[in-house]
Each structure stands twice: as structure tokens, then as C-alpha cells.
Amino acid sequence: MTKTDGRVLALDLGTSSARALVLSATDASPIPGALARHKISPAYGNDGSATLDLHEYAEGLLGCLDELQQNGHLDGIGAIVLSSQWHSIVALDNNGAARTPVITWADTRAVDLDLGTSFDEHAFHARTGAWLHRLYWTRRIPWLLSTSPAEQFAGLPDLVLERLTGERVTSVSVASGTGTLDLATGSYDEEALEIAGVTADRLPPIVPTGWTGTLSTEYARRWPGLVGVPVHPPTGDGAASNVGTGGYDAGTAAVTVGTSAAVRVVHPIEDAPELPWELWRYRVDDKRAVTGMAFSAAGNLHAWLTGVLRLESDEPAGVEIGASKAVAIPFMAGTRPPAVVPSGSGVYFGLSFDDDPADLLAAALQGASLEIDRGLRLLDSLFDRQLDVVLGGGGIDASQWWRRCLTATFARPTTVCAEPEVGARGAAAVALGLSPDPGGAHLTPVADEVARVADLRRRYEALRELAVQASTI
After folding, report:
1. Which residues does the UniProt record annotate as the domain Carbohydrate kinase FGGY N-terminal (predicted)?
2. Hey, what domains does the chain have and what are their CATH numbers?
């Protein structure tokens, strides 16, 4: 990894927005005012589709760079880095032209696989960090092959990188999110490729973390200040968010809340602890892995409820942590693997005429906090210690009440990352070898709140089991 004397241009390829921002090269902190954003509106269909228009996405991102240039922010750039959503896929023809839109992680279309009794999914999961779930290319590619004569496959970050540099390659981090990577070797897994029905030459080549490209001639003319600036391979958003939040060692769990949420630990890939069935594992870079659990309802749940309930405030004003009589099981968007609860399975228990909108919001945020706590406790056990916790992401930044609720639910102190753009910051840190400090407030759990949440936990877990059972009926 090579440090740069210039500033860093970070491209953040999210599901709800594409952003370009300029960061300091010393600590990856954002330069004030040097941010451009293009709103993304995924297309959802009754068939389970959740897609992005590739051309519109790329043009929106390029427009962000134009905006930064117009405002004089592309001068003095020494590196270009990318953070991207994991799990996306696009089917391509033999000339590399897209035959499909971008299939996102939220898309539920895939094929069922019957691999017979000889297939050992636990061994497969231990090797790849993934399951045979629709989230991954092992089930996406067979479905795409059954619907269109695709010749090649790539993810959104691979195609954005190709658009900028003319080279279609991928990183070990992005490749790990496809579910087709052997985590130990950093190469495509032969069994995963066989299941997907493709050979490695139909997927983007995996380049080492130290690889760099440069802008193609077309974009060098468009942004003269970026001529010759090295473009680093993309980092998966989960890995980038952990590092950007300050959770980049095996003693710290990062809890990030954006559209969805996750709790993760970054650790060396060498001598990594045996992976439990309930957790996934991807790669950060050539030497580090990230192990964790993800949750489909988080910032999206908060935004939906504040709109539906017509709350004037984003906070459940007047509701004490752990005191809500109603219990919400936040399965509105289903669960991530290996659980199989479908979307549309959210439940409220114990509603009464005494409840007001703030009570309902508090119950939902508390339920999401208890879900995240399940993952944190698994990671505590895996790493044989009570992990330090750092909180980050837009959802954390937006709600003081939720920060306190998470701290009480975890029953341990937390540190709040002061920087909301954790994905871009982490991508810069991975590419340039930086170790950003969270730099935010330290929260101490309040004893009364911890006790109320502990009492609520038993009721929540019993009701959660009922919700899981009902989702299969």
C-alpha cells in the first residue's frame, strides 16, 4: 500500500445514492464542501426484482465528478479509491455489453439448487464464508443463464472500474461478496464455480490489493487534474465501513447502521478462528478478513416508520429505553442468510390503545437493536472476549436515542464515530494503509436502561420464535 501526498477522491457506490467526495490523505477525513451526490432509485417488481439501471448509475456518478471539478475540488488529487455495495451482478454478452440491469442484494430471484447428499454446505461455508443463498452468484448465475444467453458476469464496482480505466478487474474484497471465493487462497473456488456453472475466465480477474489503474483517455480529457492518478481496486462496503469507523482490529466490533445494519470484526485471514454457521466472512484485502452478521431492517425501518407514522421528529420523544410495552420483531425486509424468514414478516406484539407513534418507533428501534446484539454476542464468543464497540453510519448519526438504545442493549460502553461517511473513509484507509480514529463521543450504558432491556430481552426472544414459525406458514 502506498501513501499519497495529495488528497483522495473517494467514489462510494451505494444502493440509494452514488457519491464522490474528497478526503484528506492524512486521516481520510472529508474536505468540507467537497461532496457530490446522485440519488439512486432502485426499481422493485412484484416478481421479486430489485434492480438498478447501469447506464443511469454510471452517468450519475460521472456527473458527481463533473460537479466536484466545477467547484475546483479535483485539483491536487493523489489517489482514487472506491467503496461499493457487495453482492451485485450483471449478465454480459461476449463483447462485455450488459444484457441485464444491475441485480442488487435485495433481489429475491434465483434458482433452487439440489446438489444431492454428497454436497457438504458446512464445509463450503467454512471455505467461502457464504451459503448457497440467493444473495450469492452460486445461485444468481444459474438463474441468469436460464433467462438470457449471458457469456460473462461482473458486479457493479467491476463495471464502474472498467468504465473509468478500461480494465474489467475485481478485488479480493468484492469477489468475496459473490460467494465464489476461496477465502484462504484469495482465488475463485472451484466447487463454487462448478455449482454456478461457469469457469473463472467468465468472471472478472482478481487483482491484488496493491494493483492500480489510471483513467482512460476519454476521462483524462474530461478531468485533466486526474491524469495519471492511480485508481485503486474497490473495497466491499461492509469491510470499508468497518475500517472507516475505526473497527480494524480483532478486539473491536463495528456496528454500522445505514439502509441495512451489520456488526463485524476485522481480523487477519491467517489463523482466523473457525467460522460459525450463523456468521459470514468476506475479505478486506490481501491480508485481512471481516466476519459478521447483517440485518435487513435498520435505517430503512427508521425512515419508513417516521414517514408512515407522520412523526415530526426522528426520535421516539418521551419514551425511555427498554420501557415500551409493545414488542416489534423487525422482519419487514425478512432476514439475511442463513435464516430464511421472507420479507413482509414484521410483527408487533402487545399493542394497546395507550401506544402512540413514538412508542411504535421506539419498539421497532429496540427490536433492531436486539437483533444486532445477537450478532455481537456470537462475535464475543468467537473471539473469546467482550469486544469493544464502535458505532457508525448514517442511521447512527441521525438518532441520539438509537445510539443510547444500542449502548444499553449491548450493556457495555460504545464509541460513536464522528464521521458519517465511513465507507469512503474506509476505502481510502484500505488503499493507503491508514488507521483512522473514530474521534467521536464515548457513551456509557445507563444502569436502569440496561436492566429494562435485559428484562425485555426474554420476552423479545420468545416472541421472535413465534414470528419465525409464523413466517413459514
Report:
1. 8-244
2. 7-237 (3.30.420.40), 247-416+441-471 (3.30.420.40)
Q: CA torsion sign, 443 to 444 to 449 to 451?
A: positive
Contact 148, 100 (CB under 8 A): yes
Cα-Cα-Cα-Cα torsion 22, 285, 295, 49, nearest 10 degrees, comes to: 80
pLDDT digits (tens, 9 = 90+) for 238-291: 999 999 999 999 999 999 998 889 999 999 999 999 999 999 999 999 999 999
Q: Half-sphere exposure of residue 319, counting CA atoms within 13 Å on the CB side?
A: 29
pTM over 0.85: yes
Sequence-distant contacts of 374-381: CB under 8 A, at least 24 apart: 374/293, 375/262, 375/263, 375/279, 375/292, 375/293, 375/295, 376/253, 376/255, 376/263, 376/410, 378/276, 378/278, 378/279, 378/293, 379/253, 379/263, 379/264, 379/265, 379/279, 379/291, 379/292, 379/293
Please report which helix (H) or strand (E) contains residue 38, including its range: strand 30-39
**What value does the CA radius of gyration of the chain take, rounded to a whole number of Å?**
22
371, 330 contact by CB (below 8 A): yes
Handedness of CA 279, 283, 284, 286 (dihedral sign): positive
CA–CA distance, 197 with 274 (Å, rounded to integer): 28
Nine-digit cell string for 169: 478487474
